[in-house]
Amino acid sequence: MRVVLILSWASAAVAIQKPFLSTNSCPWKPLSSTELTCRLDHDQHTSPSPTPKETKPQPPPPSKWEATDQCSGKFCIFKNLGFGNGRGMVVITTPANIKKFKVLEKAIPKSSSEQPSPPFIISKIPGKGIGLLSNRTLHRGDNIMTKSPAILIHRTFFEQASPQIQSPLLKRAISHLPKTLRDAFLAQMSHFPGDKILSILATNSFQMDLGGKDGHHYGNFPEVSRFNHDCRPNVAFRIDQKTLTHVSTVVRDVKEGEELVISYLDSLEPRDKRQERAKATWGFECSCSQCSLSQKEIKKSDKRLEEIKSIEGKLGDVSSRGVTKKMMERLMKLYKEERLEGNLGGAYTLLAMNYNMLGDAKNAVKYAKLGVEAVELESGKGQPDMEVMRELIRDPRGHFSWKGRIGR
Ligand SMILES: *[C@@H]1O[C@H](CO)[C@@H](O)[C@H](O)[C@H]1NC(C)=O
């Protein structure tokens, strides 16, 4: 019986830890040779934020997908100028995938196209170019924006076609977008030399899966590229695969006038590593609030990150001895001191399991609830391992982890 219990906890521990402890890394895959393809903002914004023009309001065209005869091999441009109430969208993919998209698109929330009063203004930020400033008090869980992509490109086309084939087709695809979205697309920062559109996409794309064996695409969200980077961000983001949107959410209280920032680096890595990655990916060093601390503060911060890793290693290993409540309280303190409110999902989940293994149902349930909230905020609903947390909330004493560490 004991063996069975331990085995089930062991496999659950693996299942629980992996996705959550890895969600902290940059979520979009390399499109070039560099390991990470994230974007770090700098003074390199070329164009100012487009000022909304006062034009006579015209009703948007109806939402309707059109196939064009602009193709390369099996990949063609599909366009929908009425998509999202006139926002518009283009896709470079196969006919089978555009069919999948049409089915999935029904789940896209209205808010992805029209957000009548977003909680921010786009503004010049001293030393940083353009950024987002909150224009009211915000709290954890508040939505900043939910956006559908401006362009979606099949992975094979993007990764395998040569630039000579990609460039003209991409250029045509972008030229189909309505002017507002097209301008926003072209205003994005691009870091790589060569074709501008290719470079923008390589710097600012997210993986999206339409399902099936051939469903991998890259999506670009021009408005999202306006967030500046900070290793200790006040906003978390995720790609919601169900609604095919990019969702950004506040992770701690934000004052009116404060800049809204997201992290493009793994916040849990030590500063040297973050610098290295920023340099490899963008050609300059990370200069966010956390990267530009004094030497003394940097040392302290790196030490805390090391300790976080070490405690989490212990908590995630069923065979660890000497797991204590003190250790878990310490972990929470470290997260707080490091301002890692956007990365709490994995830590809360580990705490829930470990409190339960120590026979502390009250704390186990408390952290399981916090874990569900944080994981959904960071990764979206429907994370498979959250079922384990919900079972724990319903019945901690009947849960397979109950008192799993006692006597060990
Ligand atoms: C914040 O700014 C947006 C424009 O980006 C505006 O629509 C909204 O009403 C403003 N909110 C407040 C509280 O001023």
Automatic annotation (TrEMBL):
<protein>
    <submittedName>
        <fullName>SET domain-containing protein 5</fullName>
    </submittedName>
</protein>
<dbReference type="InterPro" id="IPR053185">
    <property type="entry name" value="SET_domain_protein"/>
</dbReference>
<dbReference type="InterPro" id="IPR046341">
    <property type="entry name" value="SET_dom_sf"/>
</dbReference>
<feature type="region of interest" description="Disordered">
    <location>
        <begin position="41"/>
        <end position="67"/>
    </location>
</feature>
<feature type="signal peptide">
    <location>
        <begin position="1"/>
        <end position="15"/>
    </location>
</feature>
<feature type="domain" description="SET">
    <location>
        <begin position="118"/>
        <end position="265"/>
    </location>
</feature>
<dbReference type="InterPro" id="IPR001214">
    <property type="entry name" value="SET_dom"/>
</dbReference>
<dbReference type="InterPro" id="IPR011990">
    <property type="entry name" value="TPR-like_helical_dom_sf"/>
</dbReference>
<keyword id="KW-0732">Signal</keyword>
<dbReference type="Pfam" id="PF00856">
    <property type="entry name" value="SET"/>
</dbReference>
